[in-house]
Structures are given as structure tokens and as C-alpha cells.
From TrEMBL:
Subcellular location(s) per record: Endoplasmic reticulum membrane
InterPro entries tied to this protein: Spc1/SPCS1 (IPR009542)
Keywords from the named record: Endoplasmic reticulum, Membrane, Transmembrane, Transmembrane helix
Identification of the protein by name: Signal peptidase complex subunit 1
Length: 109
């Protein structure tokens, strides 16, 4: 028997074992409602603080470049803090109700 290799559909499929664990740990959409509220609050406060600090630094140094660099660093910090589904955002998982059968679905059977 000849062993046929399955075609690789993308380069992401060639990630080594450690990389696969990292990719799998980034489960999309696994935040509770309270976690989403917390992420939104952290995001808003980080961006406002970055804007204030950027304005002060840019004004003190009279440089728009410094203003944009400080604000860009704040945006990067907010992205790292809020975009990945960290465990602190899933402390209160949402429990959904089981679906009920309606009279129409019983009628169709």
C-alpha cells in the first residue's frame, strides 16, 4: 500500500504542535455577557487614557509624531487586553435554556 498524503489546504495547517495548542486556545466567541461588558469597559478606559496621555505628551513635546506613537501604543495595548478570549472574560458562562418543542413542530411530525 502506498501512503497518500492529504493535500495541505493552507500554510496554517503546517503549524507545529506548540503552535496548534496556541491556536486552539484562542477559541472565538467564548465570552460570557459579563465578560463582554468587562472587555468593553477595559477597552473604553484604555483608549480614553491613551488619548489623554497622548495629547499631554504631544502638547508638552510639541510633536504630533509623539502624540500618534503614544496613542498607537495605547490602541495596541487595548487590542492585546480585549481581543483574545482571556479566561477572565468567561468567569460567568451563559447557561442557555433547552429548546422546547412547539405545537407546530409536533403537528408536522
Amino acid at each position: 500500500m502506498s501512503s497518500r498524503r492529504r493535500p495541505v489546504l493552507c500554510r496554517a495547517a503546517q503549524i507545529d504542535g506548540a503552535g496548534v495548542a496556541v491556536v486552539r486556545s484562542l477559541r472565538i466567541g467564548q465570552e460570557s455577557l459579563q465578560g463582554q461588558r468587562l472587555a468593553d469597559r477595559i477597552n473604553q478606559e484604555t483608549l480614553v487614557l491613551a488619548a489623554v496621555l497622548a495629547f499631554i505628551a504631544g502638547w508638552a513635546l510639541d510633536s504630533q509624531k509623539v502624540l500618534m506613537l503614544v496613542y498607537g501604543a495605547g490602541v495596541a495595548l487595548a487590542l492585546v487586553a480585549c481581543v483574545p478570549p482571556w479566561e477572565m472574560y468567561n468567569r460567568h458562562p451563559t447557561r442557555w435554556l433547552e429548546p422546547r418543542e412547539s405545537a407546530e413542530s409536533k403537528k408536522d411530525l
